[in-house]
Design goal:
By secondary structure, the chain is mainly beta. It has a single domain (about 1-200), classed as Porin. The protein is about 10% helix and about 70% strand. It has one helix and eight strands, in the order H-E-E-E-E-E-E-E-E. The protein has one helix at about 1-15; strands at about 25-40, 45-60, 65-80, 85-100, 105-125, 130-150, 155-175, 175-200. Strands 1-2-3-4-5-6-7-8 form an eight-stranded antiparallel barrel. A hairpin with an 8-residue loop joins strand 2 and strand 3. The longest helix has 16 residues, at about 1-15. It is elongated, with a radius of gyration of 19 Å. About 30% of the residues are buried.
Length: about 200
């Protein structure tokens, strides 16, 4: 876990290094959803959907800078299709966007994304009492489009694909029965986010 935190701190510092023009800085809210297939227990495949609501920061929302750094952090819930383990926790993503095109009212970018998730709220439909956590780390590709209807507001849509590895470590009890799971699984899927960013400073060119 310590190595994971150091890795994401390094990405944060790299993103801040790209923040050289406060005119294009944006801060706001982000709403998103995703769907992914877990390769669980080697043979079973589980389709899960996740939704999150949180904060978003972007260093270059409107100008022609080569790179923008986008950070999102928020509350997330992940649920399986049918019965299974529901996960509630937090997700953090780092995105580096390379400028593709921009105009007075828009900016289009594309780049890699890194993701860290920690779920410490576990439940299902059987009445089990869970104690433990699920940690996920992943990498993917993301494309984003920002539309600027006014001088102080930008609405963005971003989406892409990701590959994620999960480490499960929890114990479950129910009427004297006790079981645990300390396994790893992998998943792949796609995501789509909608953001509203409030611009700080003058709009760049």
């Amino acid at each position: 876990m310590r190595k994971i935190c150091l890795r994401h701190l390094s990405l944060l510092l790299l993103g801040c290094a790209a923040f050289d023009n406060a005119a294009a800085f944006g801060l706001g809210v982000d709403l998103g959803g995703s769907a992914e297939t877990w390769n669980y227990a080697s043979t079973d495949r589980e389709v899960r959907s996740a939704a999150h609501l949180g904060l978003v920061m972007d260093t270059h929302v409107t100008d022609a800078s080569l790179i923008n750094y986008r950070l999102t952090f928020g509350r997330e819930i992940s649920q399986p299709r049918g019965n299974g383990l529901t996960l509630v926790g937090y997700a953090l993503t780092h995105s580096l966007g390379f400028h593709l095109a921009h105009g007075e009212l828009y900016r289009f970018w594309l780049g890699p994304q890194w993701r860290l998730s920690l779920y410490d709220g576990l439940s299902d439909d059987t009445g089990n009492d869970y104690k433990g956590r699920v940690i996920g780390t992943g990498i993917g590709a993301v494309a984003g489009f920002n539309f600027h209807p006014g001088t102080a507001l930008s609405v963005g849509v971003s989406g892409g694909v990701h590959l994620t590895g999960y480490a499960l470590d929890y114990k479950a009890t129910n009427n004297g029965y006790r079981g645990d799971d300390q396994s790893r699984t992998q998943s792949g899927g796609g995501f789509l986010n909608l953001s509203v960013l409030f611009l700080m400073g003058e709009r760049g060119k």
